[in-house]
Every structure is written in structure tokens, then in C-alpha cells.
Amino acid sequence: MRYIRYACLGVIAIALISVSLANRGLVELKLLPAALAELIGYNFQIELPLFVVVLGGIAAGLVIGFIIEWLREHKHRREADQKAREARKLSREVSRLKKQKNEGKDEVLALLDEAS
């Protein structure tokens, strides 16, 4: 199974490298359209290779998606945490009640009762 994973990662790496080598041309990224930049008097622009723009967009989309999914699942994690706390509380209460029930009994019988 490990070798299949390495093979898949190798194929993906080769594909990314070939796409990157094929798209090395520079593109100009502008913050604002030309007309709006003239109106405001400021426009940030940068020249980057096309593959950086494409792969950066994919990476930014993945990060944004992971963050949105993490925020969306918050209520499920909170509910699971509450259930786990409740289970621990009930377990402690059962142990306390078993000890209270076995206070006047023989030690061996009390241990057998606690084990069940």
C-alpha cells in the first residue's frame, strides 16, 4: 500500500513539474482594473510566472476550503466533546455508587461486584 501511495505522489509530482516547465512565461497581476486604478491613483501590480499563479490559486482554494469546513464542523466537535464529558461524569458516578453499595460487604465480594 505504501508503494502505491509513493507511485501516486510521484505521478502527481511529475505532472506538476511538467506543467510548471511548460508555463514559465511571465504574467502581470494587477490589483485593480486600469480605469479604477486611474481614478484612485494607485494600482499594485506584480509579474509572476503563470505556473505560480495557477498553483498558488489552487493552494489558496484548498486552504480556504479547509478553513470553511473546519468552521462548519465546529458544532459537531463541540457536541462530541460534551458527550465525552458526560460519559466520563457518568462513569465516575457509577464507580462511586458501586463503592457506596459495597461498603459493608466482604472485600472479595466487593471486588467481584466491581468487576462486573
Automatic annotation (TrEMBL):
Domain Lipopolysaccharide assembly protein A: 44-94
InterPro entries: LapA_dom (IPR010445)
Signal peptide start-end: none
Presence of keyword Disulfide bond: no
Record keywords: Cell membrane, Coiled coil, Membrane, Transmembrane, Transmembrane helix
Coiled coil region boundaries: 73-114
Gene Ontology annotations for the cellular component aspect, listed alphabetically: plasma membrane
Keyword Cell membrane: yes
Membrane-spanning ranges: 46-68
UniProt protein name: Lipopolysaccharide assembly protein A domain-containing protein
Species, as recorded: Phaeobacter italicus
